[in-house]
Design goal:
The complex is a heterodimer of chains A (375) and B (162). Chain A is mainly alpha-helical and 375 residues long. Chain A is 61% helix and 0% strand. Chain B contains 5 helices and 4 strands. Chain B has a 4-stranded antiparallel sheet, covered by helices on one side. Classes of the chains: A mainly alpha (375), B alpha+beta (162).
């Protein structure tokens, strides 16, 4: 993405200089660009002081901002910054125009950048003034700087991301860190935080036309809490993309939560024989192919007598321990393959079934097997 | 007397069967089968009394037949005992009233309930099973002279069940 946009920029600019029909708009956008550069200069001056707060304030903005697609924005940011690096207004105008093949994008984006700077400058107080815009714009600025000057900078802080946003943030974070010589602090940030900060940075830079930074104080975490959104956070803005796909590792919480409702599906809650509640082991116990479920105690009791399934009156398998264990275990692992904790329960389940031959009789003789085996 | 010696030994199974019987009682009250009723005779959960109203179109129509249902302590692993307290002319009912049915013997399944048993008994009144009869004379008559069998059965119904 990054290298593409860099390579595409000169080509597009070259193509557009030959087009005299766009000259007028080019002049206008050059004017806007000039305003923007002026605003950014001021932002850059205060950037060093507020850099660390920039991320937080940027997050604030994003709660109200429907962020544009990440790739488009980052590309535009890249181009703008590149033109600024060259420091020539002609180049700026041409690039700005050429950047947006759709005519409305470029003025809006530049406008929004300026507005973002102004808004945040007026609404944020103290050292955090302009933090939002500075973080967004400076991230863009350092972006190209990072590409051109530190292109081979390591990005070990971000895990492998198939997500577009993740790539973008990777570079942005590197740029931020490289710009302020604070790479270590940036690298120490957890991955999830950097992810959402990335979205936030992008959103605040582009979409702040509709954003109202003054209302940020309403959000509970706006006061110095720079942690990222969790995917299940109640206050997480819905405009943020779904983070769940970025979790490459299995989430243990999710596994535990997802396993429980499964076991209650289409399984009677009580044993039809003794009317006692079926526990997890019982509900996953399927001794007969007919699908009749019963608790382990009643099954054991029936095995002592005629050994026929109450549901279909067919004889249970001759060696019920091995066959049931294998069938039972197979079905369990099939259904619970994605849950680590449930597999443990499967093993426990199998152990209990295997215990049926030996310890089970002893427990039953004592008349209180119901508690002892299940513990 | 007997309870003194055998009460504590199967204590767990008694409570388990008690729970099951109570559950059946609740379900029977909530959704009673047609023309049948059943409930504990007194405060003994294991001794029920049931009534079956003779199905119209059969020689038993109009009769009200009382039955005793005696649950074993290891119910439902063993079938309950169903005994006609009302005399009935039926080839599958012993002279002392015991009902001879497959599901009450070897065909019993712990998944069966009293509701199903009552329905089966009522079905047996409609369709006797002379080939597994406990009273051969009635079975012979049923197979040989169905009209005479029905007359006698209807007469017994009028005499004993009304």
């Amino acid at each position: 993405m990054v290298s593409d946009s860099i390579a595409a920029a000169p080509i597009l600019s070259a193509a557009n200089t030959k087009n005299p029909g766009k000259k007028k708009r080019t002049n206008r956008s050059a004017k806007l660009k000039q305003y923007k550069i002026d605003a950014r200069r001021e932002q850059w001056l205060s950037q060093g002081a507020v850099k660390n707060k920039g991320c937080k304030d940027g997050i604030d903005d994003d709660g109200h901002v429907p962020s544009l697609p990440v790739g488009k924005h980052s590309k535009r940011e890249l181009e703008k910054v590149e033109t600024r690096r060259r420091g020539e207004d002609d180049d700026v105008s041409i690039h700005q125009d050429s950047d947006s093949e759709s005519p409305s994008n470029s003025p809006i984006s530049s406008n929004s950048s300026v507005l973002c700077g102004n808004d945040s400058g007026t609404n944020f107080t103290g050292s955090s003034s302009g933090g939002s815009s500075s973080s967004s714009s400076s991230s863009g600025g350092c972006y190209s700087g990072n590409i051109t000057e530190e292109e081979e900078d390591d990005d070990e802080e971000v895990e492998e991301g198939d997500d577009e946003c993740l790539d973008d943030w990777e570079a942005v974070a590197d740029a931020l860190a490289a710009d302020d010589k604070l790479q270590t602090s940036s690298q120490d940030e957890p991955v999830v935080e950097t992810d959402s900060s990335c979205e936030v940075t992008n959103g605040s830079g582009v979409g702040s036309m509709s954003s109202k930074p003054g209302s940020d104080g309403v959000l509970p975490w706006a006061s110095g809490n720079n942690k990222a959104w969790r995917a299940d956070d109640a206050f997480r803005p819905q405009t943020l993309p779904n983070l769940s796909k970025q979790h490459s590792m299995p989430n243990p919480d999710r596994c535990c939560g997802g396993g429980i409702p499964w076991s209650r599906n289409s399984v009677p809650s009580n044993c039809p024989i003794c009317c006692e509640d079926l526990d997890l082991t019982d509900s996953s116990f399927l001794p007969c192919n007919c699908g009749f479920r019963l608790c382990l105690f009643c099954h054991k009791r029936i095995l002592e007598q005629d050994g026929r399934c109450p549901g279909c009156r067919k004889q249970y398998e001759c060696e019920p321990i091995e066959t049931e264990a294998s069938v039972h275990g197979g079905s369990l692992t099939l259904r619970l393959a994605r849950s680590v904790s449930m597999i443990e329960r499967t093993l426990k389940c199998l152990q209990i079934i295997i215990q049926q031959t030996g310890p089970w009789v002893v427990f039953e003789h004592q008349g209180r097997y119901s508690t002892e085996i299940l513990c | 007397m007997i309870s003194g010696t055998s009460s504590w030994l199967p204590a767990t199974s008694v409570s388990a069967s008690g729970k099951r019987i109570q559950r059946e009682m609740v379900e029977l009250n909530n959704d009673p089968p047609p023309h049948c009723s059943a409930g504990p005779k007194g405060d003994n959960l294991y001794h029920w009394i049931a009534t079956i109203i003779g199905t119209p179109g059969t020689p038993y129509q109009g009769g009200i037949f009382f039955l005793d249902i005696i649950f074993p302590t290891d119910y439902p692993f063993n079938p309950p005992q169903v005994v006609f307290k009302t005399r009935i002319y039926h080839c599958n009912v012993e002279p002392d009233g015991h009902v001879s049915m497959g599901i009450l013997k070897d065909g019993w399944s712990p998944a069966l309930t009293i509701t199903k048993v009552l329905l089966a008994v009522r079905s047996l009144l409609t369709n006797p099973d002379p080939y597994n009869a406990v009273v051969p004379g009635i079975a012979h008559l049923y197979l040989g002279d169905r009209a005479k069998h029905d007359d006698i059965a209807a007469e017994w119904t009028v005499r004993f069940a009304k």
